[in-house]
Amino acid sequence: MEQRRQKKIAAINDLTGFGRCALDVALPVISHMKIQCCPVPTSILSNHVGYAEYFFDDYTEKLEAYLAMWKKLDLSFDGIMSGFLGSQRQIGIVESFIREFRRAETIVVIDPVMGDHGKIAGTYTEEMCREMRKLVSLADIITPNLTEACKLTDTPYRERGWKRTELFDMAQKLRKMGPSKIVITGIPQGEFIANYMYQEGQEPALFRTHREGTERCGTGDLFAAIIAADAVNGVPFGQSVRKASLFIKKCMMKSAEMGIDQKNGVCFEEILHLLKA
């Protein structure tokens, strides 16, 4: 009897010891969804930068040797996903990695982590933003938040009052860059938070969930991990976006119920069993 091959995702992001974000989220979630998660650490932090102090070790100088060993071992991946990248050089290294390791069936998911609430992260330069557009062009799926989608498309940012026609126009601009599946996340709509889904050849959709408590770090990483794992598992994109949106809502509710500190993200571990592969 033919054995089923376990699939693999290369997850490129920072490794943060405390705060539940980046690889700390991707590893358990992707593994739970029955896929081997192979981390590529871009930096190592004691805790995320939302805290006043943190230990930080930049891994840029080691990345190329790390990935060269994977090439020597002739490794292959069913999915490649990337999150926060701390320098222009890191973006270039990830671009080269995708070009070198991508096969016809490999699914590339880019979460262009650049900023939030209309502000681009202080570590990001205009040149890095231009390089991120080049990286996005290699993706099959992208998961920008509203701020990042505006920056990538040179659209003036505003927090509220987005019409579906405006979101559609922005999604089309992103589509022209390369990715065929786009979800713009974290769109405020009164008491709701919405995610706008655009897929080539499909009717666009707006998925709304009730806003639960205060914003928490790591929810974008959680969303991207679910989307990437589902894509590799062959789950339809719309179904995956709805699943991720509802699961994060449940995580937010559970975190509020347990009194989890806002900076410590969402306690997804408590309800990970509810997330179906």
Describe the structure.
- The structure is a single chain.
- The chain has helices at residues 23-32, 60-72, 88-101, 126-136, 146-153, 164-177, 219-232, 237-257, and strands at 8-16, 36-45, 56-58, 79-82, 107-110, 115-116, 119-120, 141-142, 181-189, 192-199, 205-210.
- With 277 residues, the protein is α/β, with parallel strands linked by helices.
- The protein has a single domain, classed as 3-Layer(aba) Sandwich (UDP-N-acetylmuramoyl-L-alanine:D-glutamate ligase).
- Strand 6 (115-116) and strand 7 (119-120) form a beta hairpin.
- It is globular, with a radius of gyration of 18 Å.
- The relative contact order is 0.14.
Topology (elements, then pairings):
Blueprint: E1 8-16, H1 23-32, E2 36-45, E3 56-58, H2 60-72, E4 79-82, H3 88-101, E5 107-110, E6 115-116, E7 119-120, H4 126-136, E8 141-142, H5 146-153, H6 164-177, E9 181-189, E10 192-199, E11 205-210, H7 219-232, H8 237-257
Parallel strand pairs: 1-2, 1-4, 4-5, 5-8, 8-9
Antiparallel strand pairs: 2-3, 6-7, 9-10, 10-11
Helix pairs in contact: 1-7, 2-3, 3-4, 5-6, 7-8
